Amino acid sequence: MVVSQIGDELINREITSRTYDYMRDCMRQIHTRAECIIYNLCFLKNSQDFTNISTHTPRQKSKAIDGNTKDHAHVSSGNTGDLQSELTELRAEIHKAIGDSLTAIREIYNVAELIEVISSDPYKKCLVDISELVKSALFLLKRKMPPGTSVKSDLPSSAVTIWCYPFFLKHAVIELLLNSFTAISNYQLNAGDSGPIICFSVETKAEEHFIRLNISDNGSGISNETKEHIFQPYFSLWGRKGLGLTIVKWVIEKKHRGSISILSKKGKGTVVQISIPVP
Questions:
Q1: According to the per-residue pLDDT averaged within each range, which of 21-25, 110-114, 255-259 is highest?
Q2: Which of 24, 217, 243, 279 could join 180 via S-S bond, C-beta 3.0 to 4.6 A?
Q3: Cβ atoms within 10 A of the Cβ of 49, count?
Q4: Bridge partners (DSSP) listed for residue 213
Q5: Is the predicted pLDDT of residue 95 greater than 60, yes or no?
Q6: Among 17-26, 37-46, 120-129, 171-180, the least confident range
Q7: Is the pLDDT confidence value at 53 over 60?
Q8: HSE value, Cβ hemisphere, 13 Å, CA-based, for 252
């Protein structure tokens, strides 16, 4: 069975199911970051109470402590050196809490943008920066990345835009990343290797009218025999059957009139090359 024999309806149904999974993951990420912000805001409020008491005169401290919790009682009994040391530590903790909160807010904003893309009209074409699309897909899957994995990016600093279906193209990149994660989770540390690595690069071939996205890893690799069947529906690479790479091929070749090729050697890693024509 090849991609053309499956039918658009089945692939669209599979993509819709996966979209719901990604949406649930996005909501969990928002919830986690919101909890971080709430915790830090409570900490900052308590820190303000502490510093207010710490800057009082001894008589004011006694009155303030009487009106506050006993948690602050040690302030009045400590000497000036201890107090200054505590305030220095507190300032560092406040600085970290503010930094963590700002990071969480930025990440919530990124997740909100992801939700907008993966819940958008699948058949709406628009100009998309390919580098930003890859980064957002990687951000969505950050928690699924195997521990110790290094990400090396050779993505262009300036925008490289393509006319595409962002909903479908992001799904294709996500599926490729998930396969890379599985490959490098089976990674065997070799002499001289620095650990599991995923690399990204974008090539622009203006004279050939296409943009090429390369995604590579130094994972378990694929044998030549496996490569012949890798895009077949329900073919199992690592014991999990599905339509992941079938969807990738469908998105690249049918939806974007592009091409996909895989360069791999068993035990040496894999390079996936996606070429998408530029109008």
A1: 255-259
A2: 217
A3: 14
A4: 202, 274
A5: yes
A6: 17-26
A7: no
A8: 25
Residue 260 is encoded by which pair of tokens? 């996909």
Joined together, the tokens standing for residue 246 give 């079938």
Q: What type of residue is 248?
A: V
Query: What are the structure tokens assigned to 4, written together?
Result: 């053309």
Kindly give the interhelix angle for 8-54 and 58-66, rounded to the nearest 10 degrees: 130
Residues in CB range of 200: below 8 A, 6 or more apart = 134, 151, 152, 153, 154, 155, 213, 214, 215
| Concatenated DSSP letters of 213-248 | EEEEE-SS---HHHHTTTTSTT--SSS--SSHHHHH
Residue whose pair of structure tokens reads 């590579």 in the numeric block: 216
Q: Is 228 exposed, middle or buried (0-12, 13-18, 19+ CB in 10 A)?
A: exposed
Integer Cα distance of 112 and 22 in angstroms: 12
Q: Give the residue from 5, 17, 3 showing the smallest Cα distance to 246.
A: 3
Nearest to 36 by CA among 144, 87, 111: 111
Tokens matching residue 50: 């502490």
What six digits make up the tokens of 235? 């073919």
Q: What does each C-alpha distance from 240 to 19, 135, 237, 247 come to in angstroms?
A: 19, 26, 7, 15
Q: What share of the chain is helix, strand, coil (3-state, %, to 5)?
A: 55, 15, 25
